[in-house]
Write a structure and sequence with these properties.
By secondary structure, the chain is mainly β. Helices cover 3% and strands 55% of the residues. It has a four-stranded antiparallel β-sheet, with no helix packed on it.
Length: 295
Amino acid sequence: MAMAELDSGAAVTSWNYSGERMAVGFTDGGAEVSSSIVKLCWGPMEFGDIVASCSTDGSVCVWEEINENGKPKWRQCAQLAENSYCLDLKFGNCLGGLKLVTACADGYARIYETSDCIDLSKWQLQAVVSNATDVTEKTGKCSCSGASISWKPPAGSIQQPLFALGYSTDVSGFSTTKIWEFAEEHRRWYPIAQLSNADDGVGVSSISWAPNLGRPNELIAVASGSTVSIWDLEIGGKQGVSVQRIAELEHSAEVWQIDWDMSGMTLASSSSDGTVRLWQAGLDGAWRQQASLRA
C-alpha cells in the first residue's frame, strides 16, 4: 500500500532528519527554480528547516522556511555559482560552522561555509578538492556522470570535518572513493584514505557512512556496479589511518542507492531491478541479506 503518491513530474525527493517531512524536486523546476532539479538535501536539525537544491543549469540554491503573516513559507536565501553541472550536495555541521559540499561533473568538489548561521545568505568558497592524485589526471579533462558525498555522522551535536567522496567516470583516479579531513592547523582539506572499488573501472553510485553508537572503528558502505563494499575505517590509531574491506555484497542488478539505519547496524540497498535489500552482520562478522522487498 502506497503512503503517498507523487506527480509524474517529480524527479527527486529527500526526507528531513526526523523522517517527517519530504522535499520534492520537479522536472519543471518548481519552487521558483527555472530548470529541472536533480538533487535535494536537508540541513542539520540545529539550523531549522533548510534545503539545498542543484539544477540542470548548474545552479545551487539554499532555501529556508520562514514565518510570514502566521503562515510558513519557503524562500531562497542564497544561490551559489558553479562552473560545472552539480551531481550531488550535502550539508555538514562542523566546529567552523555550517558547510555545504558540492560534487560537480568536472571532477571537483567545492566546499562552501557560512560562519553566520543566522544569515544564510552569506556563503564563501572555502576549498576546491579533487579525488585525482596523478598530475596527468588533474590537468586532463574529466566528465563525470554521477557522484556521491557522505559526511561522517555527528557524535553529539558537532560533526567532525570528515566526508567521503566518490565519482562515476571513466577516469580511474576519480572513480575511487576518498576520505577527506579538514586539518585545522593548516586550514586545508586533505585526503586521508582511499577505498578502491570492487570492480576496477566501475564508478561509484552511492556512499553511506554509518552512524557510530559505540563501535571502535567506522563503517562506510560504497556501491559500485552491482556490488556494495563494506569498509572498516580506523582513524587516529597507532598507524594513523587504516582501512580494510570486510564485506562485498553482491546484487543481481546495478545498485542505485544505499543507506544505514539510525543504529548503523542495518544497511538498505536499492537496485535497478526494483528490489530493496536489507543487510546485517552476524555474530561471526559475516554480512548476510536479511530481507528483500520488490517495488
